[in-house]
Amino acid sequence: MNAPTPTGRRRDHGGETYCEWQRTFHAPIDDVWAAVTEPERLARWIGTWTGDPADDHVKFQMLFEGDDMPSERFRIDECDRPRRLRITTSMPYDGDDPEHWLLRLDLEESDGITTLTFAQNVPDPKMAEGVGPGWDYYLDRMAAAETGADVTAVDFARYSPEMSGYYVAEFGD
Question: What does DSSP assign to residue 150?
């Protein structure tokens, strides 16, 4: 099996530097939206959430990072179903500065094919070394889940540290 190829690119939006990835799905936009927003669909490839989005935040729990990973608070900054979602994450153990990641999800459909553009801010270029391979891994897990492939066959050991050099170069540190 070939090693996965890094797909993230450096992009600037609204004064922030992001790493941005795209995945294309042969599915209607509502179906892809469900894959990135419904707890049971998310649980197949990354994690799940609890709470009421009407409160403008939920608790998100990653399911594949180990048993001691605390849940994160995901503040919903913007939700334009099924096209746009903006989130600010906060970790409970980050003390005085708990907000640290901005996540952007944009979906577009054309002729039954939906493109997901996912981005995370990268305020420190050194973060790209871990953020890049991590999101390539999770987005490939999402693609596997959505196509009926074996999600467990997507092995993080094939992503990191092999991809880290690419992302360090992409962010010019």
Answer: -
